[in-house]
Amino acid sequence: MYRFLLSRRWAFITLFALLLIPAMIRLGFWQLHRHEARVARNELIARSLTAPPVAFDSLSPSPGFAVPGELTWRTVTASGQYDPAHEFVVRGRTEPGGSSIGYFVVTPLKLADGAGVVLVNRGWVDSAADATSYPPVPAPPAGQVTVTGRMRADETTASSGIRDRGGLPERQYKLINSGQQARESGERVLGGYLELAATDPTATGGPEALAEPDHSDIGPHMAYAVQWWLFCGLVPVGLVVLARREAAERAAEARKAAADPELVEA
Predict the structure, then answer these.
(1) Do strands 193-200 and 117-126 pair parallel, antiparallel, or not at all (unpaired)?
(2) SS3 sequence of 65-110
(3) Which of 108, 128, 255, 261 could form a disulfide with 135 if both were Cys (CB 3.0 to 4.6 A apart)?
């Protein structure tokens, strides 16, 4: 009754099914690893945001310092005076919580202890009237300030996927990169930058502040992993169902042929 399973057609079907099983198992583990990475990232962000603030230059002591992953989002402080003469904007950035495209405003802060300059991302502003004009930017607070924010690593094309092209209007860039700004300004710019959360004395009327990163959503990866493993278990079930259906169809054809001899002669 099941001799058709020895046919070439069924050999190909079985081989394909056997290849699907390890592929689905691997896809399930791939999604599981993505889930684990997402959970680890969320835990890192939560720890960093709730850790006691530390001085920016204690974590990034020199120009060119590459901020490691475990320090990203760490709460940091810096005291000094803003340098509006070397302020710049970063093009093509999305409004916090929205979809409008505008600019991040980055203002260097000259540290009071003379350790160097910290780039401070003060937030988001809307686009100018045209793509070549510098957007309207609220002035930074004058005098001595202490800023608190989140430690961020320098943006690069590799890390952000944003192509750093030249030929942009004056004081407009595609990335926030301390090395790039050190070359442009000639200042001792410390590696990484600070994403502003608060200013002391309190400042009003500045760019729209950037929200903390979401570290509560674990994403759908675990559900996808379970789905792939369920699909894997369904493959042999599907083979059995397909084989039984074909066997039933063949049996029905055989009975019909036996009941009508003319079909046999034909």
Answers:
(1) parallel
(2) CCCCHHHCCCEEEEEEEECHHHCEEEEEEECCCCCCEEEEEEEEEE
(3) 128
Q: So what's the pLDDT on residue 1?
A: 64
Among 198, 205, 180, 212, CA closest to 79: 198
Which DSSP symbol is given to 155?
Answer: P
Cα distance between residue 126 and residue 135, in whole Å: 7
- Look at residue 71 in the predicted model and tell me its pLDDT: 92
Q: What is the pLDDT of residues 192-222, one digit of tens each?
A: 999 999 999 988 888 999 988 877 778 888 9
Which residues partner with 103 through β-bridges? 91, 125
The per-residue b/e assignment along 95-124, b for 16 or more CB within 10 angstroms, e otherwise, is eeeeeeebbbbbbbbbbeeebbbbbbbbbb
Q: For the chain, list residues with pLDDT below 70.
A: 1, 5, 260-266
175: nearest Cα among 94, 89, 95: 89
